[in-house]
Write the structure tokens for this entry.
Amino acid sequence: METKWITCMEEDDKECLKEAGEILKAGGLVAFPTETVYGLGGDALNPDSSRKIYAAKGRPSDNPLIVHICRFEDIYRIVADTEESRKMLANARKLSDAFWPGPLTMILPKSEEVPLETTGGLNTVAIRFPSHKTAQALIAYGGGYVAAPSANTSGRPSPSLARHVQEDLNGKIDMIIDGGEVEIGIESTIVDLTVEPPQILRPGYVTQEMLSKVLGTVDTDVTILSDKSGQAPKAPGMKYRHYAPKGQLTIVAGTKEKVAAYINEETDRLRAEGVKTGVIATEETKNLYHADVVKCAGSRTDELSVAKHLYGILRDFDEEGTEKMFSESFDYAGIGQAVMNRLLKAAGHHVVQV
């Protein structure tokens, strides 16, 4: 398959987006930018399209896909019409008023319109209304319901640039829309509204504190920062190793001085053995390290900057042939929880406390 590449920086570039929409309606796959990461889109109501997404990514078929919409009203077609679900939809409306369009995904009971191929065999559906204008226009042209996981090979760092998509999926999908660098850089927060109290299944830009201000008590799934989960995933990213570079990543936690000393000792030892090393540091610490490759993710005073650059750094390590990598640990509060969730997945939960 030849993958077509188009550049579309504005949502009013109607011709390119109409073409992409026709591909989606015909059962094809289109990678497109959102405010979080690039997504790999297919018709969410077409089981064949969902099967194609799993195949292109090499993604386990029990890992649910997120259905992207471009109007809140479209939620009613894909959510079950029962007394119980109507109560959940009341919470969904509150969250929508506060955070949609934006980087928040809600889980609700699915209607018969949504094939099990899209939901990973579950009777619930994950729904998001992205704020990226190009994404919104594409969804509208594509029929209104676009299943879109991150546009990468399963397990690899998610794409924050169109060229990352090309590295993983060129020749496997119909089209890539280049919309430049994404704004946030990590996937949406996922909150399960089918349980009481609602529960965060994946942390992201919309934090637990922000959700609690709208709904009251909101819990966080205990496996978000753990590697102990033997059950089928209720949301993308819960069960499987994700975001991983080709080399081995280790997270080092402790005081700044002890972390730097440990990482320098390890990188010196590995360099002597002929192993190429890398470090994920911050503005405050980047000059403390002397590994082969030192990457600054951003400032600890702005963890959103760390989130935005994390996946690109992991991919850069791959391009530079880095074999062993180390990362500083980050605060577990606010968006730091999302950063640590991604880092722990990328490192296979390999953490050293110093």
Summary: Residues 248-353 form a domain with the Rossmann fold fold (CATH 3.40.50.11030). Residues 83-99 form the longest helix (17 residues). The mean pLDDT is 93. The CA atoms of residues 225 and 341 lie 6 Å apart.
